[in-house]
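To close the section, here is one more complete example, presented without commentary so you can practise reading it yourself. The ligand is iron/sulfur cluster.
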Amino acid sequence: MLQRIAAVLGRRVARPIAALQVEITTRCFLHCTFCPHETLRAQWRAEDMSLATFQRLVPAFRLAKFVHLQGWGEPLLHPDALRMVEMALDLRTALPAWHLCIIP
Ligand code: SF4
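Output:
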């Protein structure tokens, strides 16, 4: 379905979507007080998006000027994070934002 939407929209306007946000993980090692990691701690599910699911999203990246791999989680904790970046860059999609919070 995403491939069909991308094909139809892509014919009309190059990259008609300003930005897509993809939350590749909900895992994080920090404890920001405003974050659902803290406010919903009892219900929070720490999970990674599978590479197969990410691959299904990739065709939609052609529609976007930017893809943000961020959300309520630290994307660099995902074991396939760099592979996901490579896949997005293969489509010449800009990746301007990470939710980097690596603390030495
Ligand atoms: S996901 Fe972001 S906001 Fe939430 S605890 Fe981690 S660093 Fe803080």
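Once you have examined the tokens, check your reading against these statements. Strands lie at 17-21, 64-68. The helical segments are 2-12, 36-39, 51-61, 81-90.
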